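Take a specimen:
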Amino acid sequence: MALEMDFGNNPVNQEGNLSMRELVEYIAKALVEDPSKVRVEEVSGPNSTILELHVAPEDVGRIIGRNGRVINAMRTLLRVMAVRQGKRVVLEIV
């Protein structure tokens, strides 16, 4: 018996794939008080991709979490996705 859960407007496309930028945006919007202020910019370089996460100033603490646990968990997820795609990614809070 398979358990199916509906998380509303999730960022998975029809092929079942999602981009790293979409993953960061989805997680961040779920954590913050003001999801309309969440913005993720992707800066591609020759060897790596930098994802810049922009949130409202009052939501920065929610993204960082206690002792940086939330942002480090997000970075770990991104690292797994990047390795599978043969890429390198850096997540920064701006």
About this structure: The chain has one domain: 20-93. The longest strand covers residues 39-44. Helices lie at 20-31, 60-64, 69-85. The first helix runs from residue 20 to 31.
